[in-house]
Amino acid sequence: MNARGRERGSLKEAKKIGLWFEANADARLTDMAAAAGTSRSALAQWLIETAEKDTEGRPAGWAAAHPREGELPLDRK
Questions:
Q1: Cα-flanking dihedrals φ and ψ of residue 35, to 5°?
Q2: 59 pairs with which residues across the strands?
Q3: Where do the domains of the chain lie?
Q4: Closest among 44, 36, 47, 34 to 1, alpha carbons compared
Q5: Quick one: pLDDT at residue 71?
Q6: pLDDT tens digit string along 13-61?
Q7: How far separated are the first and last CA of the chain, in Å rounded?
Q8: What is the distance between the alpha carbons of residues 6 and 33, in angstroms, rounded to a whole number?
Q9: Distance CA 5, CA 41 (A)
Q10: Is 32 exposed, middle or buried (0-12, 13-18, 19+ CB in 10 A)?
Q11: Backbone phi, psi, residue 61, to 5°
Q12: Which of 27, 34, 51, 58 is most buried by its number of CB atoms within 10 A?
């Protein structure tokens, strides 16, 4: 992969974090970063910064994909 790296010093208050991904999600992140010509780190940050949020601040679609145990799937609008 010949990804464009970030410019040295371009990160503001950078923090190194450790995350665990399932193999299929890891492969998808790698493939998407390669297709975009960037690093996995830069792509992950962009995804986080541009993700739409619902009215409660969660990623859009999260509540529908992750119902709470014991909660009926009612329309809460």
A1: -65, -35
A2: 53
A3: 23-65
A4: 34
A5: 66
A6: 888 889 899 999 999 999 999 999 999 999 999 999 999 999 999 999 9
A7: 45
A8: 13
A9: 9
A10: middle
A11: 90, -15
A12: 34
Neighbours of 62 (CB within 10 A): 13
pTM of the model: 0.71
- DSSP symbol at 57: S
CB 41 within 8 A of CB 16: no
Packed helices 40-50 and 23-36: angle between N→C axes, nearest 10 degrees: 90
Would the CA dihedral through 59, 73, 23, 25 be positive or negative? negative
Rounded distance between C-alpha atoms, residue 18 and residue 46, angstroms: 17
Can you tell me the distance from the alpha carbon of 50 to that of 58, in angstroms, rounded to the nearest whole number? 13
CB-CB contact of 59 with 51 (8 Å): yes
Separation of alpha carbons 53 and 66, rounded Å? 15
The structure tokens listed for 52 are 């739409």
